[in-house]
Design a protein that fits this description.
The complex is a heterodimer of chains A (323) and B (283). By secondary structure, chain A is an all-alpha fold. Chain A contains 13 helices and no strands. Helix content of chain A is 71%, strand content 0%. The radius of gyration of chain A is 19 Å and the shape is globular. Chain B has 283 residues and is mainly α. Helices cover 73% and strands 3% of the residues of chain B. Chain B has eleven helices and two strands, in the order ααααββααααααα. A two-stranded antiparallel ribbon of chain B has the order 1-2. The chains are: A mainly alpha (323), B mainly alpha (283). Chains A and B meet through helix 5, helix 10 and helix 12 of A and helix 4, helix 9 and helix 11 of B.
Chain lengths: 323, 283
């Protein structure tokens, strides 16, 4: 249970945050939690699985669109249950990942820079596709997506206010965070390290490299799909930008700046970058994006482990604990 | 229906795409560096033209200045950024992506996000029989052919090219034989960026120049390289023709968006099924 201590501290910090900030910041924090979850999914597949996916928003977008279409009753007016819709969005995202992953990785497969370019191209294709799919809202997207309904059977409990939304997300995100952390401590984590560093030797030991690669790709897609589904219920709006190229590269920047090989750093990377964007774009205006680009370059060249992961790792050594 | 016009338009698009992909290919084939900022260098070439036009300088001066300025920028980028990460090829994608964001936003801050238009220096049409085509576009095509030919000559027929190809094939052996690989990387990178700048300046009068224009050429450029095969230089010609030609010709029959989606999907299929590209042999 020791690896979960830092996580618990972070969760408590988040949980008491609404005592000190107004409702605007509580709803912002809800968004940050979702982005943090998305960053975790990329950190898992890229930092731990060694698959540089330039199109992580593909899965976020699929989750978001499936959730939107189901809860709005576009599939069938009887299939609007939030739990069922969440399940279907996660399932759709990971199913797409398995199919795409099989296409990309089976046999000789493609990897490295080729994979980055191909996933980027797929994200662009899907964004164009959703912009022109008029049944799914086309360029304008889907509006008025209902909020999460936590009710079971005869009760209805719709999440409209920022506080209940925030605490529901907080619990969901940290349970998943803890789940991934424990999973990576298990033998599966060792397999992933092997997959990333020496896939050939992994094959010599009798493991199916394809299976492991697909499993981590699908797991990451499922988490990204979940975050997409949660996002549309909070935002009430699903548009082609959710699935597209810009968001994909933004996630990449959060995770790279934070530190891809450390879940906590990736999570904080997303939250701090979004926070800085909120806060600094008021001060610096249009210069903020320029600053972000430069910061990203510096972080890649000088601190390839990440701007947040490097000090966190130093702290780890000093305290003798694993974050 | 008249097929001649779409065919010539396709050829013109292919030539520009090949010119852009060539710069990418020199850098990727030689150093394994994926330059995501290549589209932005192309854009800056076009913006040099914008500045020259508003300063009242003649068109040819702009054509001369664009590769010079962009090449100089390339030299700076190599010295400050790429040089430090040659040994981490995957990180070059990220670093140059950061660079691309910074360059794009820099242009937005200076010129604003709106698109600029550049007057074509020549407005005559050439007419053969009852077919006519803008003279300037024809000249751009000729210039592109010359530039592509010149780059091939440089890399296939000169001592510099021989050394460059030696470095591509066996970097360590080449270094042992006394070739200054770092110097060669630097000059190749500058040549690649200068080509992008010149291409941007050449086509600036025929397209809308805006800060987002780079990406529209970067991705097709990369797909051309991967489809053609990243090994031999001639792969760019095949890949560029396949991607550019298909895109341009499909646009005649289906909507531009559908054409682009179809081309991207076809390119991804080719890349998956023939990872060495159409021309690439088995390794």
């Amino acid at each position: 249970m020791r690896p979960l201590v830092p996580l618990l501290i972070l969760a408590v910090l988040f949980a008491i945050a609404p005592l000190f900030v107004g409702s605007y910041w509580v709803s912002q924090l809800s968004y940050y939690l979702i982005y943090g979850l998305l960053a975790l999914s990329l950190s898992l597949v890229w930092g731990y699985g060694g698959i540089l996916c330039f199109g992580q928003a593909i899965f976020f977008g699929i989750g978001g669109y499936v959730m939107a279409a189901m809860t709005k009753g576009m599939i069938s007016p009887f299939l609007i249950n939030s739990y069922l819709s969440l399940f279907c969005s996660v399932f759709a995202a990971s199913l797409f990942a398995v199919i795409l992953g099989y296409f990309l990785f089976a046999g000789k497969g493609i990897n490295g820079p080729y994979l980055a370019i191909v996933t980027l191209a797929i994200a662009i294709v899907l964004e164009r596709l959703m912009s022109n799919w008029y049944a799914m809202g086309g360029y304008n997207g889907l509006l008025d997506i209902p909020p999460l309904n936590l009710g079971l059977f005869w009760f209805d409990y719709e999440l409209w206010d920022s506080l209940p939304i925030f605490y529901t997300l907080l619990i969901t995100v940290f349970v998943i965070f803890a789940g991934i952390t424990l999973l990576l401590k298990s033998s599966y984590g060792t397999l992933l390290t092997a997959l990333k560093t020496h896939p050939e030797r992994l094959a010599f030991f009798g493991f199916s490299v394809l299976q492991i690669r697909l499993s981590v790709f699908a797991l990451s897609a499922a988490i990204a799909g979940l975050s997409g589904a949660l996002f549309v219920t909070v935002d009430g709006f699903a548009s082609p930008t959710l699935i597209g190229f810009t968001l994909s590269t933004e996630i990449l920047i959060w995770v790279a700046i934070g530190g891809k090989e450390m879940l906590m750093a990736a999570f904080l990377g997303a939250i701090l970058t979004r926070f800085a964007e909120n806060w600094l774009s008021e001060i610096f205006g249009d210069y903020w994006i320029l600053l972000l680009g430069i910061l990203f370059m510096i972080s890649v060249v000088l601190l390839p482990k990440g701007l947040i992961a490097t000090p966190l790792a130093a702290l780890e050594r000093k305290l003798g604990v694993r974050l | 229906m008249d097929l001649l016009l779409p065919l010539i338009d396709a050829l013109s698009y292919i030539l520009i795409l090949v010119l852009i992909a060539l710069g990418l290919m020199i850098v990727f084939g030689m150093m394994g560096v994926i330059n995501m900022a290549h589209g932005e260098l192309f854009m800056i070439g076009a913006y040099v033209m914008v500045v020259c036009q508003s300063a009242g300088l003649p068109f040819l001066v702009g054509l001369l200045l664009a590769p010079l300025i962009v090449g100089l920028l390339g030299l700076l980028i190599e010295m400050l950024l790429i040089r430090h990460i040659y040994l981490r090829p995957l990180d070059t994608i990220l670093a140059t992506w950061g660079l691309s964001i910074a360059l794009k936003q820099g242009i937005v801050l200076i010129f604003g996000p709106e698109s600029q238009s550049i007057a074509s220096p020549i407005n005559e049409m050439i007419t053969i029989g009852d077919f006519s085509y803008p003279l300037y576009r024809t000249l751009v095509m000729l210039a592109a052919i010359l530039l592509i030919g010149g780059t091939f000559w440089l890399f296939l027929k000169t001592d510099f090219g021989l050394q460059a190809r030696a470095v591509i094939a066996r970097p360590d052996t080449a270094a042992t034989l006394g070739i200054n690989t770092r110097q060669l990387y630097r000059s190749s990178f500058v040549i690649g960026t200068a080509l992008a700048g010149l291409a941007g300046a050449l086509v600036a009068p025929t397209i809308s120049v805006d800060p987002q224009m780079g990406l529209g050429y970067l991705i097709p450029g990369f797909l051309s390289i991967l489809v053609g095969g990243a090994g031999p230089l001639a792969g760019v010609l095949v890949g560029g023709s396949a991607v550019g030609g298909a895109n341009s010709l499909l646009t005649v029959w289906i909507s531009p968006v559908a054409a682009q989606i179809a081309v991207f999907i076809m390119a991804i299929l080719v890349i998956r099924l023939r990872p060495e590209g159409i021309l690439g042999g088995r390794k």
